[in-house]
Amino acid sequence: MEAMTEKGFxxxxxxxxxxxxxxxxxxxYDNALLTVVDVNRPGLQFQxxxxxxxxxxxxxxxxxxxxxxxxxEPKERKRRLDNLFLYDIPALVIARGLExxxxxxxxxxxxxxxxxxxxxxxxxxxxRTIEFLGRELAPCITRHGVLIDVHxxxxxxxxxxxxxxxxxxxxxxxxxxxxxxxDAVEIRRISNELVGCAPEIIRHYIELRxxxxxxxxxxxxxxxxxxxxxxxxxxxxxxxxxxxxYDRLGIDIQYMxxxxxxxxxxxxxxxxxxxxxxxxxxxxxxxxxxxYGYNAAEELVRRVDERAKGMG
Length: 312
Hints:
The chain is 33% helix and 28% strand. By secondary structure, the chain is α/β, with parallel strands linked by helices. The radius of gyration is 27 Å and the shape is elongated. The termini are far apart.
């Protein structure tokens, strides 16, 4: 997204995306960044305990914190809020549409800090925020290739320019599968999974030599696109080399290391007459079977061994 920088996600854009009510704009509202995935409910801080407090986290007041503050005298409440706003927090969000104490607004203005409010339940808001920031702040790299959702499998097709990646992708789309990205794939590591998407500027577009650039969404409809997909298989297309040995059984699974995550990897040799889309489609289904514990090559070897023993 355009609000993403090298260091974090802008609080102003976050407030817009989450439809947050702006009670007070801090001096750094347009430049303050969310740089930490987690959020903090400052109950302990209102008690005066600031050891291990991380001011970079988004601060969220829920029902428990609200009731704790409500029991105080206005002067004491103001003092507790001042102690929080003394820190360089990105923003304080009041959840559940709760009342904003006059002392809270006064303190935010005095310290020039951003104060926001949401109607969402506290748990729902914090969960959505953590999930959102987990994706947006995840480590990201860009790789040349095509990402297609094939029967729920995120298949990343790689290979040299002109080898047929986009041509295979367009045939897969015509078979009912969905385009995620063409030419450039942005890959984010979220936990131990890799999630790929297209850069915003080229999203839904695909380039076909001899035809040019087409808009897949406009040409094939919404069913033909997907915003992102977990990468579960890498397929490398390469020109057929008669001197090279290609695995015919597939007993040993190869892996490609991307951002320290190992992804199953197959190499498909390309030559005239081979239907690449069909092969990629079968590779995706076979990969899914393997993830669910079934390996056709191992099953075949087991049957051959049993037959050999029976004949012996």
